[in-house]
């Protein structure tokens, strides 16, 4: 199974002191050869900008280390075009995941997951589940 990490779960995995339960889950899944852990470029960006802003070198080092342990999924034009379709689709159904002015990170992440054939691991299953299969780390 391919598991793509949302920025909230990625942040918990990279935290040096908190969320030991999430880090334990992550290490267990990482060691299980039937799963592929995917770090999407969008989640890396969302987390990295915050860690740089709050000056968290330990968490940044952990995020950088994940690049060697996981599959990094860069953004591309077909993904962004699919994200635009997803964004418009949830709005036309009256189920937006963010404001009209927001970039639409949930739609971009969902598009990456759909194109890569992955389940999104997130604490935000309500919003992401409107576009793609989404589960909490506890469900996996």
Record the SSE blueprint.
Blueprint: E1 2-5, H1 7-14, H2 20-31, E2 36-40, H3 41-53, H4 57-69, E3 71-73, H5 77-92, H6 105-116, E4 119-121, H7 125-128, E5 134-135
Structure description:
The structure is a single chain. This protein is α/β, with parallel strands linked by helices and 140 residues long. The protein has a single domain (2-139), classed as 5'-nuclease (Rossmann fold, 3-Layer(aba) Sandwich). The protein is 56% helix and 12% strand. The chain has a five-stranded parallel β-sheet, sandwiched between helices. Strand 4 (119-121), helix 7 (125-128) and strand 5 form a beta-alpha-beta unit. The longest helix is centred in the middle third of the chain and has 16 residues, at 77-92.
What is shown here, in short?
This protein has 140 residues and is of the alpha/beta class.
| CATH topology description | Rossmann fold
CATH top level assignment: Alpha Beta
Low-confidence stretches: none
User: In total, how many domains does the architecture comprise?
Assistant: 1
Shape assignment: globular
The portion of residues forming beta strands comes to 5-15%
Q: What is the helix/strand order?
A: EHHEHHEHHEHE
Overall average pLDDT: 94
Span between N and C termini?
A: 10 Å
Number of distinct beta strands: 5
Strand order of the largest sheet: 3-2-1-4-5
- CATH homologous superfamily descriptor: 5'-nuclease
Distinct helical segment count? 7
